Prior knowledge:
- By secondary structure, the protein is mostly helical.
- Helix content is 63%, strand content 1%.
- It has 15 helices and 2 strands.
- The protein starts with 9 loop residues before the first helix and ends in a 14-residue tail after the last helix.
Amino acid sequence: MSDHVELYTIGELARRTGLPVRTIRFWSDSGILPPTGRTAGGYRLYDEAAAARLELVRTLRDLGIGLAAVQDVLSRQVTVAEVARVHLRAVDAEIRALRMRRAVLSVIAEQGGTTEETLMMHELARLSAAQRQQIVDEFVEGTFAGLDLDGDAGIVAEWMRELPDEPGRVDAWVELAGLTTDAAFGRRLREIALAGPQPAPGRDLRAAALEHVRPALADQVAPESAEGLRILDRIVDGPQQGPELLAWLETVADARVERYWELIATLNGRETAPPAVPALQWLIAALRAHSRPVEVSGRREGT
């Protein structure tokens, strides 16, 4: 049985592994790949175990693990699994950052914008989850400050705060952040809260409008027409409270509010509800055109 152990020079290891000589020499100088021995001329030699160690070092480095962590693995201070878990968290954070960067670039490429808008979008995208949540929390608290939000109103206010840890769509987050800085939007939300529930209980007005008005919109039925009146009669019933209902609708049927809910749903990965504001605005026009005292048979579920 032969006791011969095959040894390799740095150049031979480089040819065997495809790694540059300078890289192997650097790792050897760093103590990560100590030589097995030396030639009579002082050149470093490495055995098969060292070659296998070199392959492990290369794998860990290809995965982005730092030299200090590699040394800890090789010296058995930590396991590969422990290092991998730590590095996985770092890679996940980097991926999230790259996704945000890509989303910003995508929005800019598709929508353009001024230099100021681009800078704002970039800064908003860099916010942490806690900072994003703080922006929304402060907006909701400031909008409804001093109001008694009992029952459904309180639940709705809490829903308005709902944000995921990481927004899946940076364009949606940027648009949402823009709404929270819109003073007119905040005032409208406060007006809606003060308007209270639908003037008359019973059938849900939003659902009724979607059921009867959406087909009318698709068929381009004019709200002031005779057919518009027939559709109105299917939704509104009775001679009472017409002006009150009209005033309530004019307050709550706001496209910006509906867009806020769409953005919240988008950010949380939920399906968005069908838009109701176009139908409600058609209903407002019909009520104005066929001006008469009317009463709705429905209770608002929310617009």
